[in-house]
Amino acid sequence: MAIVTTKEMFQKAYAGGYAVGAFNVNNMEIIQGITEAAGELKAPVILQVSKGARAYANHTYLVKLVEAAAQENPDIPIALHLDHGDSFELCKSCIDGGFTSVMIDASSKSFEDNIALTKKVVEYAHDHGVVVEAELGTLAGVEDEVVVEAGNEMFTRPEEVEEFVTKTGCDSLAIAIGTSHGAYKFKPGTKPQLRFDVLEECSKRLPGFPIVLHGASSVPQDFVAEINQFGGSMPGAIGIPEEQLRHAAELAVCKINIDSDIRLAMTASIRKYFAEHPDHFDPRQYLKPARAAVKAMVAHKIVDVLGCNGKA
Predict the structure, then answer these.
(1) Structural Rg of the chain based on CA atoms
(2) Is pTM beyond 0.90 here?
(3) How does pLDDT run across 153-164, given as a tens digit for each residue?
(4) Annotated catalytic residue: which of 75, 83, 127, 304?
(5) How many angstroms separate the CA atoms of 70 and 100, rounded?
(6) Residue 83 is among the residues annotated as catalytic for this protein
(7) pLDDT tens-digit profile of 213-235?
(8) Left, alpha or beta for 239 (phi > 0: left; psi -120 to 50: alpha)?
(9) Dihedral pair phi/psi, residue 131, rounded to 5°
């Protein structure tokens, strides 16, 4: 199956009460782990590339790796998505270069400027058969070059979503309801609680329209413990409770972004491997179990959080 857009994925997800996983990719092993899990579980999947990933691995390498994954997994739909595009030029480059979906993140701009830039990207993307995700509201935390200090985040205003979607023509909308980027989402001792009232009000104003959640890694504590056990230092790393994400997927959320959990799975596996095999130096030796750790983590998300197994 060729790389596809997210349009049909989201239509099915909205109707079926599940979400599609959008997993950030940076190298071959991550792509393999994600798509092997999705292929075995017959789940649709979105492979997303950030500006930082593009700078690290090169646009062409990543596109070709995703094309190879689609060739190896012909029975599942795979979309290639730009995560947090910060300019028209970046979005255009990805549209011209084989991506099937792009996100323009102008959430830090004024409402009017966000609309103007998003509309410009939408017009170009739609002319080239590509879909567009936009964002209203801002999330705290750090992800590559996206940095918002705690206290400066802003929940999405439901009263703005209709005007925004109508004027921009975007295909999906990322909203801020209490998720956060990175592995240090909340202060230790606090209980994360998503604003489902904001989500429900947005969905009422946009019936049938796909909603996206960014910053939705759960920061599994077994990974954190393993990293710390084998020489790491990650005190106070806390994520979004998985049961809250599952509830969001049952509502209007059709796409849930997961990045930090992939990094944690790989890092925990590699630290453990080095501690147990100090004489090994072949990257294949430690990247093989790291890839398996990504696969196992993604399989868990697909079945227990997203509920999209068997939906390909």
Answers:
(1) 18
(2) yes
(3) 688 999 999 999
(4) 83
(5) 13
(6) yes
(7) 998 999 999 999 999 999 999 99
(8) beta
(9) -100, 160
